[in-house]
């Protein structure tokens, strides 16, 4: 009798379990569909750049647009390597991005450590003012910065662009690193100081190694911000031999015509280094941002 009752209960509960499984499967399917749509939306510009750079010129004006080039050609890539100074642009962009990122990390680490470990009212005000500088649009500061850079002799070369990128990256980098340093227990540093390590040694031997994912994430952020910068490059750089990638790509746009295959090819070339850098340090970047969010 008891077995019959248990069997009846299981049979009655089976439809409920199936309904729960169906609902869970439906939610999982909706989630994956949403993720796929977002991924497609994010990757579509990159895909279309590849298509446009490989299409012959005649195919660009067909209707409906060709989603795949019927006769792919690398003529656009050959043209930019042979008829432009793209190697010089790449070199200049790399120099500016690396130097700006290095300066940003050095100064942001000092400021972030001070803001994280010294809990005084003055430090809090300084931190707020540092973040408040990001509320001002960069274009509003163009004229004051240009005048100041003329007085300092920073207009006309890559060194001025390095300084400009550093100035605008260091506030955000400081707050990113402060969030990372806040997650590191101060007891670890106090134990190191009891063992005889001074404050400078604690920073370089204890705090920075523990905060390595956040430091890498901040460096990647500063590098990409400098790599993509155009407004201040246009303002500060005066010689074509000092052009960076953003200025070089902008030079393709003419008054009467624009060679779009060459534009897309050059854009792909300059998009490759940041993508490779991000993929190489992806785990550090994700871990650093996760720590910053905490």
Automatic annotation (TrEMBL):
The keyword Ion transport does not apply. This is Carbohydrate ABC transporter permease. InterPro entries: BP-dep_ABC_trans_perm, MetI-like, MetI-like_sf. Coiled coil: none annotated. Residues 90-281 form the ABC transmembrane type-1 domain. It comes from the Bacteria. The chain crosses the membrane at residues 31-50, 94-113, 125-146, 158-181, 202-225, 263-281. The keyword Transmembrane helix applies. Its main location: membrane. It is a multi-pass membrane protein. GO terms for biological process: transmembrane transport. Belongs to the binding-protein-dependent transport system permease family. Signal peptide: none annotated. It is found in: Cell membrane. It holds the Pfam family BPD_transp_1. Keywords: Cell membrane, Membrane, Transmembrane, Transmembrane helix, Transport. One of its GO terms (cellular component) is plasma membrane.
């Amino acid at each position: 009798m008891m077995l019959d009752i248990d069997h009846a209960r299981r049979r009655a509960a089976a439809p409920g379990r199936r309904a729960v499984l169906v609902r869970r499967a439906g939610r999982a399917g909706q989630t994956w569909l949403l993720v796929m749509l977002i991924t497609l939306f994010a990757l579509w510009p990159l895909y279309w750049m590849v298509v446009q750079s490989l299409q012959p010129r005649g195919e660009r004006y067909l209707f409906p647009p060709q989603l795949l080039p019927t006769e792919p050609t690398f003529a656009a890539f050959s043209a930019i390597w042979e008829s432009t100074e793209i190697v010089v642009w790449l070199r200049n962009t790399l120099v500016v991005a690396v130097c700006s990122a290095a300066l940003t990390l050095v100064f942001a680490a000092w400021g972030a450590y001070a803001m994280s470990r010294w809990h005084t009212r003055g430090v809090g005000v300084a931190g707020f003012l540092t973040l408040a500088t990001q509320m001002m649009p960069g274009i509003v500061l163009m004229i004051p910065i240009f005048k100041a850079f003329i007085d300092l002799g920073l207009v006309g070369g890559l060194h001025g662009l390095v300084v400009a990128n550093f100035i605008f990256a260091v506030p955000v980098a400081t707050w990113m690193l402060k969030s990372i340093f806040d997650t590191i227990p101060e007891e670890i540093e106090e134990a190191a100081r009891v063992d005889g390590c001074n404050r400078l040694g604690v920073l370089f031997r204890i705090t920075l190694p523990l905060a390595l994912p956040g430091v890498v994430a901040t460096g990647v952020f500063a590098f990409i911000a400098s790599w993509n910068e155009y407004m201040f490059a246009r303002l500060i750089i005066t010689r074509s031999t000092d052009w960076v990638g953003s200025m070089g790509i902008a030079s393709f746009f003419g008054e009467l015509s624009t060679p779009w295959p060459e534009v897309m090819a050059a854009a792909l070339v300059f998009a490759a280094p940041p993508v490779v850098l991000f993929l190489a340090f992806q785990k550090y970047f994700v871990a650093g941002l996760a720590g910053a969010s905490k």
